[in-house]
Every structure is written in C-alpha cells, then in structure tokens.
Protein 1
Amino acid sequence: MSEDMIPIRLENLMHFNCNFENECFNDCCRDLNQALTPYDILRLKNNLGISSQVFLKDYTSLHYGPGSGLPVIEFKPNPDAGYECPFVTPKGCSVYEDRPGSCRMYPLARAIARSRETGEITQYFALIEEPHCKGFGKKTGQTVEEWLKGQDVDRHNKENDRLMELISLKNQIIPGKLEGAQSDMFYLGLYDLDEFRAQIVEKDLLKECGLPENLLKKIKTDDEALLNFGIDWVKFMLFGIKATFGE
C-alpha cells in the first residue's frame, strides 16, 4: 500500500462519516478516473433498466491494458462537467443502492491475499486520507467491520474477488498480451452480459458445452448466474481449464 494510506484493522474504530452536511459533499464524485468491474456494470444497468450494450455505449469508455490486453471499462469522461460521475446529483448519488464497489469502500482501500494451499482469502485494509475529504475525524462509534456492513459491500467484494482470481490465472497461463479475439471473448463473457445471453439463446453459443437444462435455464434468466457462468466460460475457452460452469 502507498505512503498516503494508513493501515487499519476490522476491529479499529472508523472515525469517518460522509453526509450532505459535509462541505465536500459530492467532491469525491468529480475528477473521476474510475474503472468498473463486471458486477458494477450488472448492478448499474439493471438499476437503470437498460441493456448492458446501451449502458456500455452511453456511460462508459473502453480501453485495453497495454501489457495485458484485457479490457478496462471506465465511466465516460466529460470535461464539460468536471469529469464528474454521470449519476451524481446535487442531492447525492442517483443510483446509490447499486453504486459501484469502489464507491462503497471509500475511504478504505482493500487488498487480498489468497492461500495457495486452501484458497482462503485474507483481507487487508487501509484508510485513504485525501485533502479534499472533510469526513475524517467524525466519531461514529462504529468499527471498520460495522461500517463495511453498513455499506453492503460484501457481495461486491466476493464477485470482484472472482474477477481478480481470473486475472491472476490469466497472468500465470498467458503472461503476455491477449490477442484481439481472446480479449473480445473476455469482454463478452464478463461485461456485455445481455449480448452474451443473446448469443447463447439465438446463436447456440454453448451448443458444444452440453450444459444441464436447469443450468441453461438459469443463465437465460438470472444475470448473476450468467456472470458467474461467464467467468467459468472464459477460463475454459481461453485457458483450457475444465470449467464447473456455475455448478
């Protein structure tokens, strides 16, 4: 963790509170350079009631990691609006219930270590004290663990950890840059879920996979099941790893 981050434990008190009374309210939603995870996009596009394709086109920009070739999705920059989040309003976040995981975590940073023997994940946290933020020093009586529960971040972390595991696997098996078609497959199975589903339903994309009917039915109707399946599908298609296919 960098020098401007202060290590903190789950049992420590969280002297921080963000609300509309703070003079810096909404400042952290401006001057953004924010990457979105597949689970972030799933939640946001469903909140807005639009398809993944429309969400990605209207609200995000795409570039590829120069060393990895992996797709990176960020909010589309708007210099005329001070590079602010497209969903910030004077009253706060308009998609608050489905805001991205990184918004829920702020002002905490989270790092993980996974045991090679057991696969168990150990979490590490640090406070990010930025000069513009006036939420620090406010005593709430909450521990870091209690504060995190209040942010409802657990589900995001679990889904995002699966993405990190997939990227780690990619770096081990294909340490260089993914080629165009491979990178497009990664994008399809993780980010453009509605197009992924359309290809499954309309183009028999999974014809050779021999999926159980109950699983096929589930991924046709359940976005979270489809995303989890997409991760397994990418493992199988790109790395030749026998997939569990969400089972």
Protein 2
Amino acid sequence: MLEKTNAKKARRGSKTKVRVRVVEGGQMRVRPDVLATEEPMEIRLISGGSRKTVAITMRTPGADFELAAGFLYGEGIVASCEDILKISYCVDSDLDAEQQYNIVNVELRGGRDYDPRSLERHFYTTSACGVCGKASLEQLELRGCPVIPPGPGLVAPETIYALPEKLRGAQGLFDATGGLHAAALFDKEGTLVALREDVGRHNATDKLVGWALLEGRLPLSNHVVMVSGRSSFEILQKCLTAGVPIVCAISAPSSLAVDVARQFGITLVGFLRGNRFNVYSGHERILA
C-alpha cells in the first residue's frame, strides 16, 4: 500500500496576503489583497539506495504529492500506483521547516530502476512555459504511447458548451486570487469529477493526473479534461499518458499540441467560449 506521510501536517498555504495601493478616479487608497502563492517544489526520486533530484517546478502549494506522482507518471517513470512505495516531504535536519515542505521525496517500490537521462531536461521548470527543452513528438512514439481507442461515445456540443462555466464555478482559489489556472476532469455527461488549480496549467494537469493515479482511476478513457487558457504539447502529453480521449481548452492550442492530438487519436477542442468551439482533431467523438 502506498504511504503518503506528512500530508496533513505539512499543508502549505495556497494564498498569500498582501497590501496594495489602488488608484481609482485619481485617488489612491490602501487595501488588503490576496495573491496566488508561487514557490519552488523539488521532486526527489529515491530508488535502489540512490536519491536524485529529477525536477524543480514553480507551483502553487497544495496537492504536492499528486503533482509529483502525476509528473512521474506522465514521464513514464512510474507505470502505476504500485510502483510508488512512499511519498513524503523532506525531513532533513539541515533544512528549515518551510523549505522542507518545498521538497517532495518519491520512493520507488523495490528499488525499481529508471533511466535518469530521460529526466535531465526537467531539472528546472516554470509556471509560465513548463519544462524547458521538452521532448519532441518522436519521443512519445519511442516511449510506446498508444493511440487513444474510440470512445467514450458521442458527446453533445451542449455538454461541451457548459464545461467552462462549470470549471470556473469550481475554482475556489481563483475566486480569492484571480491568478490561477485549472485542469478539470468531467465524465462524458459533463459532470465534474475533480479539479485542481495551480499557477501553471501543466502543474494543474499533473495534479489532476496524479490524483487519478493515486486513486486507481487510470486510464481516464471515459472522461473529458478541460484546461483554462491554451493547450500545449505538455498538456496533450500528460492527457495522452492518462488515456484521456477528449481535451478542451478555453484558448488556442499550439501547433505541436495539434500534432500530438492527430497522431494519437485525441479529440482536441479549442476556443471554447459561449456556444462555439473549434475542433482540431477527432471530430468523430462529437455529436454534430
């Protein structure tokens, strides 16, 4: 059984209180404000007696263990929840308490081996652009990522039209800060299953996939994922490894995101606003 330690005790704040000066109508006044917290998180992988930092990402604290699990799953380091023995915050005595909660240790079961070279490009990531030097489309093929099979059946346009409002309505942290992205999981009828928020779209998606992994819900073959903002190569890669057949975004996809969707059989929806959206790939799953 997977161990997850310190999860409740070490919960970090997702919001930071500040004071700002507001200029309105030529007058300046001071008022309190709330910002989305952004802090670095280091993912350390423990396997076979070795301990190695495999990624550093800027994220919003909260669901850190899901973020680490989702990241490692998306990169092919773990194939199931059973590969992970324990996830914990760092408790090294030479670190202050606050820094400990920005380091997550993931211990693989039975000293499971992995190729560290596949993770070298992930040493530093940002909430703005994701992992620098990301792998190309060909590397997904080399990893053996399968084409998404048909399903989950036809989805009505009206179901898709309703997703942005449902996503927005569930964004509690966005309501408080106005500065967070979200990734949401829906069933094919448009019912919200889970939602995660973060300063980075890719982190929010990792948290969502990590939740599904740790809950034993993968693959997500009968579900729809929706992200705030645009869809990128990273978003499609993570959804592909989780088996998601339909990916929707409020804004535009990148060219490489469209390439991934078309090559691996994902229905990709963009510019989802009001009663209109564009379908860039996999129109067969949409009833129209």
Protein 3
Amino acid sequence: MSEKTKEILEWVYCIIIALVLAMLFRYFIGTPTIVKQKSMYPTLIQDERLWLNRWGRTTKTLPERGDIITFEEPAKIEYTESEIDESNPVAQYNNRTGFDWFIHNFLEIGKRSYIKRVIALPGEHVEIKDGNVYIDGEELDEPYLQDGIVTDLYVNTNGVGFDDFVVPENCVFAMGDNRNHSTDCRAFGCIPLEKIESTVAIRIWPLNKWGHVD
C-alpha cells in the first residue's frame, strides 16, 4: 500500500470517528434545534434556536414540573369517545426494534417531535375544568400563560380528549403554553419516560434573548 493511500485511509478513519462521536453526543448529551410551531407562544417563538439537554434521557430521569421538554410524536393523535380510557391515559407508540429503531430514534430520519411544558407528574390527579388546570384538587398557578388564555379540553375532530385522570408511573402530562393552538397530552395522553427526548436548556438565538427559558 502506497503512502498516499495510507494517508487517504487515515483521513477517512478520522472522518468516520468524528461522525460517530458527533452522533453519540447528539443522542446522549445535547443538540441544537429550531422552534417550528407556535404551540409554546409566547414562551417560544417560531424560528428561535434552542439548545436541548438530552442527559435526562441517558440517565432515565423524569423532568420536573415546569420543564419544557421534547418528545417523540405519538403514533395516534386523536381518539374517538369509545377509545378514550382515562384509567390508562398513556400515549400510544409504535414498537420499533433493530435497524428500524436505529434509523428512527438514533438517526432521527422521518421522526417528528413535539415541544411542550410539563404540567403534572406521576401519581398526580389532573382535572381540566372551568378554564383552569387542577392538580390534586388545587388550581395550578401558570404565570407563563398569556392574559386571557384558558385551558379547555382539547377539542379534536371527534370532540373528545383527556381531562380527568391520574398520571401513570414513569409518565408526564404536558401541554403547550399557547393552549388554543396546541396539540398535546389532552389529545393523546401522557408521555412515557422512554419517549421523552430532552429538556430545553437555553435559548441560543436571537442573541438578545440568550439564556434560560422559563
């Protein structure tokens, strides 16, 4: 093998190693993202850039109430009245294994994610009524909402959703801050820990809004 060929192969190996390390960092540690929807307005605005912390997924740690998280889009978004089971309010997902799991979850090819705020934690009783959210019978203080925003049952094309239930173990209940324009856990149920991808660490763009997101 010539010296030139060896040099080319060394560069190829270095590039491959760098790509693998970058993918591992992106999956297990953190990654940037762009806000694409208006469901978290006014907290997050379309085209803002965020840095996502994925260490919680690596350590299998549940987020806290008030955290803004990203999670995989459920396989089923809307339910008919006969399909709603508030005794088991967990979002439905496809069971991916092997190479399909690698492509979808690790490389994130063809994958869609939602960004929402954690409202309730495992074991807590959630009620949505009178335009407010109640946790274990106490009205939840939500200073991040715009004035005049009320929280109603998510009204999909079938007119049903989850509005009175207990959050299952290892799950969270999350909603967008822009309640009237957010498809969230009211529609499809609580998010299992293994489907939570990250928490929002900081806003990195625009520069005049750099910093922690409340």
